[in-house]
Amino acid sequence: MRRRVLFTASTFSHIRNFHLPYLNAFRELGWEVHVACGGVGEPVPYADRTVSLPLQKRMWALSNFKAAHTLRDMIRAEGYSLISTHTSLAAFFTRLAVKGLAGRPPVVNMVHGYLFDERTPALKRAVLLMAERLTAVETDLLMTMNRWDCELAKRYSLGREIVEIPGVGVDFSRLDRGREEGGALRKGLGIPEDAVVLIYPAEFSKRKSQAVLIQAMVKLPERTVLVLPGEGALWERCRALADSLGLRDRLIFPGYVREMAPWYGMADIAVSSSRSEGLPFNVMEAMYCGLPAAASAVKGHVDLICHGETGLLYPYGDAEACAAVIQPLIDDAGLRNRLSAAAPKNVENRALSYVLPKVMELYLRAADWKPSIR
Fold first, then answer.
1. Range 342-363 burial, b when 16+ CB lie within 10 A, else e
2. CA distance 181 to 264
3. Residue 94: left if φ>0, alpha if ψ -120 to 50, beta else—which one?
4. For residue range 90-114, what is the model confidence (pLDDT) as tens digits?
5. CA 225 to chain centre
6. Could you give the CA distance from residue 208 to residue 271 in angstroms, rounded to a whole number?
7. pTM confidence score
8. Are the beta carbons of 213 and 325 closer than 8 angstroms?
9. From the CA atom positions of the chain, what is the Rg in Å?
């Protein structure tokens, strides 16, 4: 009988964006791959079976407990050798589904960035931490991606075994043609040759905080252009903010971009204003492309950037400090070139070719570990 692995997440897009290489790796080993996520069911490459779960963002919604019941029935019926769970909501209800289940399979929780830290309101932080502690005993292996998350997980014993991994791995090879196409894209967008282009590809959400960068643009030279690829709930609000500040001619909102290589190729500086991260793809991709980075000094960013050596950092949420950090990158070509040269070397160990074998080794070791029946 073929071994089976179950991947769960809050959305199918999360699996498609970050985990297809792992689904493929299991398939190549002869495993059967199942995927269960919130939202409308849709095909997922390398998955033998996909299941739609009625997950809602409201933690205690009744439908989330129905999702846990569905998962419990699946786990009983399918005889999985391993469960890999992702995103906080799905991770909690997946582990709730196996709670007290006799002969359950090993569970690996890959943390893409805990959503609670010192900036999170105390009540919300307490609830989220309680959820993690409640399901810690069902977490046979906990993978974290940054130092802050790893230290917190160890402090509260949020898993039987806790390991820090270098992310899920980035396929940098698809970015290699960026410089060739970047010039044509820049010209097509009508960006002047003497302009300095900042780029921040991200979902328009409260956590990503694009408003900070837009406000910082007021303090930066007129020749500075900010490009914000992405879509999301706050897209219109950010466009309105740019208009109200008289910045529409200096901001570009291209919407969702599938192939980022040309966009990195046309940019001069990578920026990020995020409130927190696991280990952000956008910063790693930009650094691989040789862009000097200026980012908020938050978890995930500080794991990638050493201030003054591989990039620059500023206090989260401070638009004036953000502008003050970006200004030297605009004015000082020597600084820009030095950070640009250091950036690609700093993310070499985040490449998919380096990370995937290490994570797969952890997965397979966990699959051979048999939890004792409690």
1. bbeebbeebbbeebbeebeebb
2. 10
3. alpha
4. 999 999 999 999 999 999 999 999 9
5. 25
6. 11
7. 0.90
8. no
9. 22
